[in-house]
Amino acid sequence: MFTKAYIPYRGYYSTPFCKWQGSLANENAIELGAKTSKRWFESKGIDQTELDYLYLGITVGQQRVFFGATWAAFMMGAPDIPGMTIMQACSTATTSVFNASMAVEIGNVNTAYCLMVDRCSNGPHTIWPNPLGPGGEVISENWNMDNMRSDPSTGFGMLVTAENVAKENGFTRQQADELVLIRYEQYNKALADDRAFQKRYMFPVEVKISRKETKLVESDEGVFINTKKEGLERLRPQMEGGIHTFGAQTHPADANAGIIVTNKERAEAMSADPKIPIQVISYGYARAKKAFMPTAPVPASRMALERAGLTMKDIVTVKTHNPFIANDLYLAKELKIDPASFNNYGSSLVYGHPQAPTVARLLIEAIEETVIKGGGYALATGCAAGDTSASLIVKVG
């Protein structure tokens, strides 16, 4: 359990999530994330040279990723700080904040910055030399598609893991479609009053159109906001006898997000409202039964709760990465909560999944939702490749 790690109120941002092969498809994710962070620091009046350390979260390789955090630090205006690169698939953001919190807790770092960047679009096609192969044939990998289709530990794709959970728990297509529709209704609430909720944390991203021209992307791109019951019912399951259609699973996206983690005094000084402290409380992790990835957030969340001395009755806000609707059906069943009570204002099933930034946005939304509710404990969780998960609890206000 942490006692010294804090996130300044509004000491975070997320860009809009842009659809696969959309507006951010041609941008190097590290460059874009660093330059967006620099613009955000300037807009907030934050002196980035006060940062001590950078945690760069990234899961999809980009050109010059070898230099990772130090290159990003240079571009975002903090050229003299060291850093490290963290990769844990969909749990990258959760684990980046955990590492930053741990460094602050033991006094090794005063103020850390977690920058999560990814571009699923135009994923790398990697080739390794193989002199002993037949005729010297190379070993190749399509970074995104090959790994989404098959976990090398089990041989099963991610969709199979979701259908395994659905089948074992008796979830039905009707349950899936009903909850998917609720998730879209929740997202649409974030668009009310000219996107008032999203504007609490969302920062526009600047994209190159040509050498001389740029544009600002200010809102999510590629969300099917007009999703209706009849439309969901017409979609076919992606596996024979399964419950998941294209509507019941997420889609790849591109984005970046940033979160400052520091001590209490610095958090108050950097906060948009010092009367709203945000304390990092605990972290949990898990690896579930092989090929049952959507179950992993449950034991990870239970670990975080146990370490904090809390129960689900103490949690005011729950946000979870839901690449498949089976994730939410299982979480609700096992933690004994109403599936309609969490993922308010949106979730990755609806606005997409750019990997490293995904849970960063969920955590940020959890904080803002908890502020609206008057404070309390918030839980952010989600599954990750390899049947794993990481969960984080923060106390707001």
Shape: globular
Cα-atom Rg, whole angstroms? Answer: 20 Å
According to DSSP, the number of beta strands is 14
* Range of strand content: 15-25%
Helix run count: 13
In sequence order, what are the helices and strands, one letter per element? EEHEHEHEEEHHHHEEHEHEHEHHHEE
Major beta sheet, specifics? 6 strands, mixed
**Which CATH class of the largest domain applies here?**
Alpha Beta
**How many structural domains are formed by the residues?**
2
User: What would you give as the CATH superfamily of the largest domain?
Assistant: Thiolase/Chalcone synthase
How far do the termini sit from each other?
A: 18 Å
Average pLDDT across residues? 97
The CATH topology assignment of the largest domain is: Peroxisomal Thiolase, Chain A, domain 1
Assign the structural class, choosing from mainly alpha, mainly beta, alpha/beta, alpha+beta, or little secondary structure. Answer: alpha+beta
Unreliable runs? none
CATH architecture level-2 label of the largest domain? 3-Layer(aba) Sandwich
Helix content: 25-40%
